[in-house]
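Here's my example:
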Amino acid sequence: MALKSAGSSPAFPIIPYNHYAYVINHFNILNSKRLRNKKIIKTVKTLRLVKSLHRNGIISHFIMVRSQTNNRPFIVFDTPYYSSSSYFSCIRLVSTPSRAHFISIKALKLATKSIGNSIIFLETNSGIITHLDALRLNVTGRILCVVL
């Protein structure tokens, strides 16, 4: 007898609704436990966030692999370390599916002065970019996360 629901089977795990929170949680687990690397399920949104984190130096390496048992794609990534501690302490998720936070250019300029070395990631029409790129391009968007 076949399963009618794929969600109840451990062979077919369902990614939570918020793909960005999925990546951020696994990054924070990787940092807190000081693991060597972390494997996450590949989707279009998870790959988009991992690429932007890699482009800005928060993730040092990532590679896409396929599971040999069910041919499912995964992303394996790691963070840069210096003297057995990572450069970035954590990533804080700001926008969730139930609450989206948007920022204006004026507020972005104000936030840039007050956040110091932290990086704000925005989801814009130009893709996922940092707050400095958003100011340079003069675009606004939804705040995804803050890297501390």
Notes: Residues 19-32 form the longest helix (14 residues). Helices lie at 19-32, 44-55, 105-114, 131-137. The longest strand covers residues 141-147.
